[in-house]
Design a protein that fits this description.
Length: about 600
């Protein structure tokens, strides 16, 4: 068989530049800050750095609203800074993956500005539609259909200059590009080739599974007057959802295969990962099957969408058997061909140690962070470490609305509490505190100084979002000096993957699927077998049946490969047939 591509054995580290390291005292992280921290990242052992967007942007959605794909926003620095980062990273054997946001642009992009003129060549580069017949354009009810935006309000914004509405799944400053137009696709591919020629090593592709929209044979969108496709049901906030008609649409495979041919064919050493809301495990297998020439891997979302009551603003505690079932679905689908990404944190998710672990005491936080990391990294696939996860950084625990910055949270509060009246202020504030995206966007905690070393202590301005007070104990300076830190454990996990092909490539089999506290599975490759068993609870638990049988089958002294507490503690735990709170162990069978 052909050797597995390099990225099947790699670990990717996601940097949110705005919150990573500020070097010019303006309270915002910047590219020079990333360059200044490359040794820390190389020491951690990761292979790839994925940067959230640093392109020119009005920053309406923190850079996911791009106004010039081929220039760097002054907030982050210059193209020369980017070239320096690429060179310095490559010198350390680190690859740089950029965030490709091409489902939409900023409304301040030259393409959109030109598109407002119906006679301009860019007129058809976005989704423009007239007001519903018989209505007054720009007034409620005149929108082409009832779709709502993920960031609140209608997904249609009226443009008086053009006298029509444009479609935006996200904010009104993020108009969706019209991928049906080959000129749009050509421009995207040219830009991608420009970055690859500049030395970047691939892309994380923002909501790339939303680019193909479902229309009827006359090009009419669902719910448009005269469309053969009815719109979906109206939800509690007064809008229908674009998702059923835009996720994994009819030309998804065609567009991805065309992109592969036009951009990546003939190149080597790159990787691509698509952010894939609305994709099933079976579709993940198809899209990541190398024979189909589409993408290397995808981020699926069911495992970070299920622990709530119909909306992320109504969180529910972790149902571990359900999580195991979802993860098993991911793993099984790509057991033959295709590949999996492994993540439970990113700039859109709350901190995993606060979500599925226990951040109420330092000991529980360190132990549960290690247990969650062991569980994730021992799966088959490519792991993604989100900045600060390796320190066991926690949610912000903000208590007031004015502490938040994210338009998703602020718009949702207004829409759900003040407009649709479907959630109380108290319940919504609790929901944002638990699941808001700002939880993972507070500044990286480098040391115990005033602003955690994120910005210069004498900075003239506060950081753009508050530093978490717990930086005095949770920070990289302390962690890198402590052999028992979460950071040290991530180093061990990453080294284990690099030195043992079974971790990246071995088969994966869940055991004791119904156990409510223990996550256990077996990896196997060429006769070698590893058992991973993790207690994802704060109580002492007995080993479930199949796991206990496998442990008993081993030699008297189990061969401990890695353990969250210690190898000696692991031996005692397994001999007693029980695990301490948050204890995770891998043994060679
Ligand atoms: O996220 C798309 C997306 O699905 C998120 O909006 C996620 O579903 C939501 O935040 C969870 O509640 C990508 C980027 O990662 C995100 O930061 C951008 O805001 C969004 O696309 C628009 O570009
Ligand atoms: Ca700065």
């Amino acid at each position: 068989a052909t050797p597995n591509p390099w990225w099947t054995n790699a670990v990717v580290y996601q940097i949110y530049p705005r919150s990573f390291q500020d070097t010019n005292g303006d309270g915002f992280g910047d590219i020079k800050g990333i360059t200044s921290r490359l040794d820390y990242l190389a020491d951690l052992g990761v292979d790839v750095l994925w940067l959230s967007p640093v392109y020119k942007s009005p920053q309406d959605d923190n850079g996911y609203d791009i106004s010039d794909y081929q220039d760097i926003d002054p907030l982050f620095g210059t193209l020369a800074d980017m070239d320096e980062l690429i060179a310095e990273a490559h010198q350390r054997g680190l690859k740089i993956v950029m965030d490709l946001v091409v489902n939409h642009t900023s409304d301040e992009h030259a393409w959109f500005q030109a598109s407002k003129n119906p006679n301009d060549p860019h007129a058809d580069w976005y989704w423009w539609r007239p007001a519903r017949p018989g209505t007054t354009p720009g007034t409620p009810g005149a929108e082409p259909n009832q779709w709502g935006s993920y960031f609140g309000g209608s997904a249609w914004e009226y443009c008086p200059e053009r006298g029509e509405y444009f479609f935006h799944q996200f904010s009104k400053k993020q108009p969706d590009l019209n991928w049906e137009n080959p000129a749009v696709r050509r421009a995207v591919y040219d830009m991608m080739n420009w970055w690859l020629d500049r030395g970047v090593d691939g892309f994380r592709m923002d909501v790339i599974t939303l680019i193909s929209k479902r229309t009827d044979k006359n090009g009419k969108l669902p719910g448009e007057v005269g469309s053969e496709i009815p719109d979906g049901p109206v939800g509690e906030e007064g809008y229908s959802s674009p998702n059923p008609f835009c996720a994994d649409g009819p030309r998804q495979d065609e567009f991805l295969a065309e992109m592969r041919r036009e951009v990546f064919d003939g190149r080597s050493g790159f990787m691509t990962v698509g952010e894939a809301p609305g994709i099933t495990p079976a579709r993940n297998e198809h899209i990541t099957d190398p024979a189909n020439g589409e993408l290397d891997m995808l981020f699926l979302f069911e495992h970070v969408d299920f622990d709530c009551d119909g909306t992320k603003w109504k969180p529910r505690p972790l149902d571990l058997p359900r999580l195991k079932q979802i993860m098993a679905g991911y793993q099984t689908a790509v057991a033959g061909v295709g590949w999996a990404s492994l993540f439970d944190g990113n700039h859109d998710q709350p901190r995993v140690v606060s979500r599925w672990g226990d951040d109420t005491t330092d000991e529980a936080r360190v132990r549960s962070a290690k247990a969650l990391a062991l569980m994730l990294h021992m799966h088959r696939g490519t792991p993604y470490v989100y900045q600060g996860e390796e320190l066991g950084m926690t949610n912000a625990h903000f208590t007031r609305l004015d502490q938040y910055r994210d338009l998703e949270s602020l718009n949702a509060y207004r829409q759900r509490v003040e407009e649709a009246h479907v959630q109380s202020a108290e319940s919504m504030l609790a929901g944002i505190a638990a699941r808001g995206r700002d939880n993972s966007r507070t500044p990286m905690q480098w040391d115990d100084s005033t602003y955690a070393g994120f910005t210069t202590p004498d900075a003239a301005v506060e950081p753009w979002i508050a530093v978490n007070d717990n930086h005095v104990t949770i920070n990289a300076a302390a962690a890198t000096a402590d052999p028992h830190s979460v950071y040290a454990f991530y180093q061990q996990l990453i080294a284990l993957r690099h030195n043992n092909p079974i971790v990246a490539a071995g088969s994966w089999k869940l055991i004791d699927a119904d156990d409510e506290h223990i996550y256990a599975f077996v990896r196997a490759l060429d006769g070698e077998r590893l058992l991973t068993v993790v207690n994802l609870s704060g109580g002492t638990v007995t080993l479930p049946h199949d796991t206990a049988e496998l442990v008993a089958d081993g030699v008297t002294e189990p061969d401990v490969v890695i353990a969250t507490h210690s190898a000696s503690h692991a031996v005692v735990s397994l001999a007693n047939n029980e695990l301490d709170p948050w204890e995770g162990i891998v043994i060679r069978l």
